[in-house]
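User: Run a structure prediction on this.
Assistant: Running it now.
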Amino acid sequence: MTRRALLATLLLTLCAVTSVAAAPEGQLTWAVHVSLAPAWFDPAETAGIITPFMFLYAMHDALVKSMPGNALAPSLAESWTVSPDYLVYEFVLRKGVKFHNGDPVTAEDVKFSMERYRGAGGGIFKARITSIDVVDPHRVRFRFKQPWPDFMTFYGTPATGAGWIVPKKYVEKVGDDGFKRAPVGAGPYRFVSFNPGVELVLEAFEGYWRKTPSVKRLVFKSVTEEETRLVMLKRGEADIAYSIRGALAEELQRTPGLTLKPNYPPGTFWLVFPEQWTDAKSPWADRRVRLAANHAIDRPAINKAETLGFSKITGSIIPATFEFFWSPPVHAYDLARTKRLLAEAGYPNGFDAGDYYCDASYANLGEAVVNYLKAAGIRTQLRPLERVAFIANNREKKLKNIIQTASGAAGNAATRIDAFVAAGGTFTYGTYPDIEGLVQEQASEIDPKRREATLHRIQQLIHDKAMFAPIWELAFLNGHGPRVAESGLTLIAGHPYSAPYEDLRLKGK
């Protein structure tokens, strides 16, 4: 054999070995802290929270999305352009990309996905878009009624799910309910089976445009008991477990073979007092009472007990990492001041505040806050709701008294204000005329400095009115077991879950 022939043979052999090695193998199993819901499989339903993206990053793909090292990474769109007046955005789609059922991803699918979107930010999209024009199968053009400098923040980050694309022909064939039962996307993993509230099974889609996933099968198990999640991790029944806190997190740290992975999503937690807008006779209509509640909570003590001190105490509902963030002073724990404020408001003996609603997966935080409020004389009862029910009731504005809410959605100060403060926001229970006027003013402002000043003023008014009681920016404590070479945890800045799924690896792979 000549030297050239020998080199060619070795090259072919190496390629064959590489090809075999690149085939997806093995299984990764998650112990997930919430009950699994089919609404999270459809991008059109995406609320202003991060939970659905646990599944969107696996089954679906977006024109533009947050990826490692790039908050606005070209994905199904290989490029885009913006007109100087911010009135036209044009996307060029990546060619050769297909959905799991073999249908090509086209500009018609992009137009269809946006027009059926009804999740967070849906109102502002509909109010601002003039038209969505299919230029050709691989080019789509968005036209706006007025300048919208924030469009890519709303569309291309997990602030909303509007930029995630679904197959038009398939959705029209099976309908919305059929799509939730058997979703088809363009992501790295395809749907296999779903046992409602129990288990979701996905398998690698080897035709994924970015890369062939390393792991063959992903299994997400709903395990709402924190102790059970840790036990599963220790026994090897789960490879990755979400939300391990307090003494259990300390135990995870001490266990050989297990790794604690603190993560910092843009996840702020705060209390909402909806009766400040709905009932003029309610104690919560008095700013002094809302201020008293702020001073009743010992945030550092809760942080140390529940998240080992990893969380960041904040005085805002907006993460400190967001563009246009204004840093308000934090209301310090001061029981004497709390009682003095309550007495000044006419409640020297405190008052019965009714139910305290929260997402059941964060009932630990709710229990701690409830105990501090009771010690100050604000008597309330904890009412945890399973996450799907909590989000649905909160979205429909059915909760009252005290609501412990949160958001880990990406974006900037304007996107968070749109969902929770602006009139008509997905989770807005009420607002004030001076704040709403500024919200509308900043939305079309293309001068960054003027816009920043307006958004800072909005945040200052929120603080001055004591509209909310901010608690912390959550340190989301997760863990993984010894089989995991790459968990995907912390790969995407600010994303709390494993992602991108195609980058995950088992040891030996």
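The CA atoms of residues 44 and 117 lie 4 Å apart.
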